[in-house]
């Protein structure tokens, strides 16, 4: 006789269901990470929501405050970054808001906005190495020496525009205040000490946030995502400003400022 | 004699400077909307930062709380939206985090996530019309009648998955509590009353947030941007889940589930 | 025993199959629009492939030549367009090739690259109106008069950089030569005649291609897509040039060329 | 009187000019890689244009034919790839054409479309190694042995859907016919011989095109760009099909096909 199992095997019902542990959607009921959304709305902060979504549980009050400060620190750097310029150029071309903002976010490459992840990865690897009996200050010395030997810049230290990035010490201060200053922040500060003495280079916003996010337990692969959350409102403000105040089709230079060094007309 | 003005005109110095009123960047000093960033970090909430960036001034405490609730309400709707599916598919293809998230945000089109702007535009136009001596309840009647006549769906009411979107009444309740319930919210509720009586249709999250954001003074052109800020953390959580738990190159159906109805081989 | 319900539940046919008439994929067999791909490769031109994919059948030889010329005409306009600038800025930020190119394509908005669709739509509507007994020259007069009355620019005529766009007459000449000059091209030329006499304005590349693509039977909704196909190689060349010859993190202006007109520090 | 400093300040030459060797734009004159565009339009093929833009000179007739075949071979693979699915999902959400297509292209990650570059890089490195006195067949053996030892898949061989990808032998045949079969193609074939004997694995489209594009002198960093040019028309056809034939907001699965394995409601 044909059993249920035999039949199931013959007809192989669609088993390609999409699996998720983030949100359960049922008619009139939306459960996120174990909480009904209507109970989250109005009762937690945005930073708590970010933490809950990504890590699956609510942070402590101190952690939430710390993450909020990190998000805010990423808010805007004027019209200097390629991402902001790209977003505004796309806006001046007449594209919809989401297109302009995403165009800006696509410029988060390894030379811009990439430092947060590189710095987190470096600090997390550094702390891994302390397991083998080395102190944090010793690790810092080894890491700086290695990077100097390879003539590589240490991500999270030094800044294109600032010799003293005003955001970094403020973030370190808040890490202490919110009791979120752990071994990754300590390592970052040790590195700064060495770099400042030897090369007059200070920690920047990425180095500070790399330490803090690592101490908050964030995987370094999520670093640029946290940056994106923090910067999106700034990009939106810039797109809105471009549309509201500037004529369409921004010309970023006169035609005679373009230098053509290709071939002249071939006959 | 050659005067300064004559010379200036001849050499026409580069006057294509990029103008912005959002952030001033100087060495070691970053001023956003009149506030040094190190004074904002740790002292205001993320919602206050969003408001400050976009509108140029800080909100009241009640407005800040309200905007925070709005942002949180957009957090996630599981794997049902095209944006989330697109982001996860792109992640399964092995693209970087920012690429996956932006791919998702590109799916904020007129059929998905567009309702917030359509609803804001409609409510703001409705309130404009009250200037000509009509009461809000009368305007609501006219608007519903017009859309019924044109057989058009009213944006912000009814939901694909929910007959009673649990987020909408919670948001309305918070609007009252935070004293952000103004004429746009009133109009949204009047429309709901008519639609519920005649068609058993209720306000959804977009209708509620459209009323609230309009009462907070947001231009309807920024509606989808607010949605993007709120949803980005959810998209990031989904991309992270995809990469952490699922094999690469997600197959959303078996090959034999594709139905080809094109031409067979031409000889 | 297996009841009807048990069977139904097991067998529940998945009716969400994805339907397509473009390509049938079977093991070791790929059939596109009725042709085995290995028979297309090496036997047709790229323009024929574009036509086949989009319209479902191969073009005539003349149509294929014409479409190829249209694609080539979109190739590049140096570093003047926002799309090219955005692509290069994103490249200078260190993003992957596909990200840079897509960032550029996102700048195809209504003020840049949008004219091809607006022009196609206008010409196609114009030819629709000739059904009601009006000649093409009469239609042209009405259309120009209407746009002048509304003080609207006619899309496809006039150019930011060129008083005589050298691509337009070449394309019109090829339309004649390839016997692809139909009623839409005729209408475009009639409009040019009126605009040139009254305002010294000539047809640009978009007006020419709008006429040609319309006479080739392309839906105006596909205009910017044809532009994208033609421009992608140019964007790729620019991204490659940026990466090969320029330092990372392009600065498009000095810091002192940014003009901040926002609020000074609030105390 | 005008002092030296006043003059310098007025004249301050903007040295941030944007340099390019691709296209020179002057009023009514557009020169690309040394050719007036109106002389290119109608006189060269699309593949020749791609080659000219990227490499700065026109290819031979055989090279042009070969590149055209490569472009066509990338045209479409039905609705199976994540890129096509993402593009169609974004289209079903009601986004504009360029947004849908770019969303698709963002899915060109390391697990999908990435193989062409990995394969080109591998073949180009392999041929570099032949300089040190090793024959191609010996290099092939070493490369396969290395990858087996590291349990890594060799990019460009084997296919998710096809045991014999019908495009690969056709491309190899055309490489011979067009005299574009050089040392990289030879290496690819040697690798196939070893893999086929030992593991019954054959060359796929990426392996074939990797050999051909390398023999045509393309930098492996451009591999995915060539793929993008070839695939864009296919993505456009799919977006157009989605919009023309399918209802908005595609649901790729029933709600009960989603498997939630997260936390249940917390009390």
Tell me the β content of chain A.
5-15%
Using a beta-carbon cutoff below 8 angstroms, give the protein chain pair with the largest interface and the number of residues from each chain.
Answer: A-B, 87 and 87 residues
Number of helices of chain A: 12
Please tell me what the overall shape of chain A is. Answer: globular
Which ranges of chain A are low-confidence, i.e. pLDDT below 50, for 5 or more consecutive residues?
none
The first-level CATH class name of the domain at 115-222 in chain A: Mainly Alpha
Report what the structure shows.
Four copies of one chain form a homotetramer. Chain A is mainly alpha-helical. Among the domains of chain A are: 50 residues, no CATH class; 108 residues, Cytochrome P450-Terp, domain 2 (Cytochrome p450-Terp, domain 2, Orthogonal Bundle). A three-stranded antiparallel sheet of chain A has the order 2-3-4. In chain A, a hairpin with a 2-residue loop joins strand 2 and strand 3. The longest helix of chain A has 23 residues. The interface between A and B is large, with 87 and 87 residues.
């Amino acid at each position: 006789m044909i059993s249920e199992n035999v039949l199931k095997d013959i007809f192989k019902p669609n088993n390609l269901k999409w699996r998720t542990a983030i949100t359960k959607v049922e008619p009139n009921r939306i459960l996120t990470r174990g909480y009904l959304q209507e109970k989250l709305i109005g009762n937690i902060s945005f930073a708590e929501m970010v933490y809950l979504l990504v890590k699956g549980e609510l942070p402590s009050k101190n952690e939430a405050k710390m993450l909020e400060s990190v998000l805010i620190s990423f808010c805007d750097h004027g019209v200097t970054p390629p991402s902001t310029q790209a977003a505004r150029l796309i806006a001046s071309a007449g594209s919809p808001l989401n297109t302009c903002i995403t165009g800006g976010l696509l410029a988060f490459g390894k030379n811009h906005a990439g430092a947060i992840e590189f710095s987190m990865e470096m600090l997390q690897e550094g702390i891994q190495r302390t397991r083998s009996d080395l102190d944090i200050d010793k690790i810092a010395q080894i890491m700086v020496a290695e990077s100097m030997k390879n003539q590589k810049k240490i991500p999270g230290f030094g800044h294109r525009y600032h010799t003293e990035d005003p955001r970094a010490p403020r973030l370190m201060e808040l890490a202490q205040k919110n009791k979120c200053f752990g071994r990754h922040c300590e390592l970052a500060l040790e590195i700064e000490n060495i770099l400042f003495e030897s090369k007059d280079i200070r920690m920047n916003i990425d180095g500070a946030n790399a330490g803090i996010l690592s101490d908050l337990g964030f995987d370094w692969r999520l670093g640029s995502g946290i940056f994106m959350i923090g910067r999106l409102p700034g990009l939106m403000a810039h797109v809105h400003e471009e549309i509201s105040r500037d004529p369409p089709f921004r010309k970023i230079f006169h035609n005679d400022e373009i230098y053509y060094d290709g071939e002249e007309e071939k006959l």
